Amino acid sequence: MFTAIIHGIILAFGLILPLGVQNVFIFNQGAQQKPFIKALPAVITASVCDTLLILLAVLGVSVVVLANAVFKTILLGAGILFLVYMGMVIFKSKPASSEEPAAVYTPRKQILFAASVSLLNPHAILDTIGVIGTSSLSYSGLERWAFTAACIFVSWLWFTCLAWAGRAAGKLESAGLLIAINKISALIIWGTALFLFIDNFL
Q: H/E element holding 179?
């Protein structure tokens, strides 16, 4: 069982570490929201969505869903359009100043965006199914659930730490830094949308 737990931790960190749309959004919310507790809707939503995807992958349900070519095309198209829209919103958002309140996301908007970048992210879904789902087949019984729990634990830990890292950047009280974070975040999101479009529709 110890081997399954270590395997799950290493594998989950390997999948979640690369700079993707989900990570960028959580970091951005950590930087923008004051106090930190106001970034929790995004952190919790992303963690819950990852938990759901991991459970679906291990149980094999999502493999059946993605086998449907029409559904996969709709998922990709909706995901690309949403990424373009979210990039525009983040690019235009401004940090707080003493004269002007920040255009920070409400809890409802955080939940909507965090769920969208998690559940409408084809790469995240395919990675979860192709890697975690496939790797879980090496185990059975309690070992399989220990592997699954380790992957889920890493997601919760990572998103929390990522938001804290964003908070550290936001505490520098540099409007220029926060604007730069927004611009870079938007460019990464648009780049991801472009890559998905070229990779799947051209």
A: helix 175-201
CA dihedral of residues 19, 22, 27, 31 (deg, nearest 10) = 140
pTM: 0.75
The helix or strand, by DSSP H or E, that contains position 108, with its residue range, turns out to be helix 107-119
Q: Which two tokens stand for residue 80?
A: 């690309």
Q: Which two tokens stand for residue 173?
A: 């009280």
Model pLDDT for residues 37-70, shown as the tens digit of each residue: 999 999 999 999 999 999 988 887 656 666 677 8
Residue-wise pLDDT for 3-45, tens only, equals 899 988 988 887 777 667 788 889 888 888 888 899 999 999 9
Query: What does the angle CA 39 – CA 43 – CA 48 come to, to the nearest 5 degrees?
Result: 145
Lookup: tokens for 118 = 């998690």
- Residue 132 to residues 3, 38, 54, 159, 163: CA-CA distances in angstroms? 15, 31, 7, 18, 24
Q: Residue 60: name the closest of 159, 121, 149, 148 by CA.
A: 148
The residues, ordered by sequence, that sit 6+ positions from 66 with a Cβ below 8 Å of its Cβ are 72, 125, 126, 129
How far is it between the farthest Cα atoms of the chain?
59
Give one word for 68, left, alpha or beta, with left for phi > 0 and alpha for psi -120 to 50.
beta
